[in-house]
Sequence to fold (470 residues):
Amino acid sequence: MKDIPQFAVIGRVNKGKSSIVSALAEDDAVVIDGSAGTTLVCQDFPVKVDGRTIIKLIDTPGFQQAPRALGWMKERETSAASRRDVVIDFYNTFKDTEEFIDECRLLTPILDGAGILYVVDGAKPFRRNFEAEMEILRWTGQPRMALINHIGNDDYTKTWRPALDQYFSVVRQFNAQKVRFSDRLELFQAFRELNEAWRPGVDEAIKYLNSEWKRRERESAHIIADMLADELTYHIEIGLARHEQIQDHRPGLESKFHDWLRKRERKSRQAIEQLYRHNSLESEETDLDKPVFQEDLFAESTWEMLGLTSKQLLTLGAITGAAIGGTLDAAVGGSSLLSGAIGGAIIGAGSVAYFSTRRFASIEHVSRFFKGGRVVRVGPHKNQNFPWVLLDRALLHYFTICDYAHSRREKIIINSHDDTGPAKGLEQGRRRELAGIFSRLRKNPDNINDTEKIRLEEILLEIICYRQYT
Ligand SMILES: Nc1nc2c(ncn2[C@@H]2O[C@H](COP(=O)(O)OP(=O)(O)OP(=O)(O)O)[C@@H](O)[C@H]2O)c(=O)[nH]1
Ligand SMILES: [Mg+2]
Fold:
């Protein structure tokens, strides 16, 4: 353990120390709170990759009485060379007493060899009374870096900089609530500058982090591709006696179909959240719309927001040869499709295709007969926009989660009412290739083709890694 670089996160109470630990260690179990004095004892939080600790972070209680502590030390200091010993004296004198409890606790990991990450709140101006704690940290002689965090919108960085520069060899801006992978990596790179002896350990940690990130991206593409393939091919078979109509079972079937789609989507969401180590995330997202069968074709929905535009769908329909017009159901009929309030605004043959693409559910299909009845298949979901909406929802969720700082505790809202899903911005060739895969998967729901799924995974990986959309 001694070879693992260790950093104690130090600062005044309530300045975001625990938030920084939580974000860097990707640990959403770290206790963070708006009231001062939340962290009372030191606690280790390992940064782990594949079960192996690569860096150790130590959350500490905040300084409470730094000026008085420094006063005690100054009375005993004889020269710069004696300062670390004076801090050790201070620690030994008070560690088992009721005095300077927080100061002794936070000094424990530092005197044990940890590097110092000193956190200040850049949204409040620098004041002289911070000098005492910075001086104590300097006296310890440990390598140290300052992080300017902002708890609020004001920016007093200019007042902090000249002071911090005198006490810390590296000074960085750091937003504890907007920490992305690249920010973590940059910070770990800065750790290298603090102490020559830590370089090999930090370099190794950075190497592991990079490969872990790549692994997560690949795994995410796999999870999303699996989900898309399952959702696009899902179907139910139901046995109907000769006197029964599929309509008799409609409410039950609709719920079953919808529940399955929702659960499958939720399962992939959870897998992604776990992969990115969000274990207690509360999220809010508009539910996947209930598929409506047949005449409920014009049901209000979020579908027009996400996914592709009707024009893009039409283009793809022509390109992929998807029988859009052919999906018109006899029960509804072309004329009823074009009637109604919105019907009048639509012109030409394209309009039939447009409306038929809005249908959610597929139509019954007799798969076999048995004595006294028939087996009817419901699904797969035929709506042309369905795969694109699923894709958009999955990508919006993915991009939110992979960049979501573990220090944030509020419920996350994924906005699927927005019309800015990534699918519309995909390059046309890419869209066409995806449309082909979606269409082939749906045509063969009983036997998901592995080659299609692998290609889907590759495309998703490129979208995820390079955010290839406008
Ligand atoms: N807006 C914003 N709030 C933050 C940021 N960092 C911390 N906070 C909030 O500030 C409060 C204190 O954060 P903590 O991380 O618990 O601070 P601490 O320094 O560990 O506090 P103690 O353990 O009490 O000393 C919490 O309400 C955090 O949500 C930030 O970068 N931006
Ligand atoms: Mg804390």
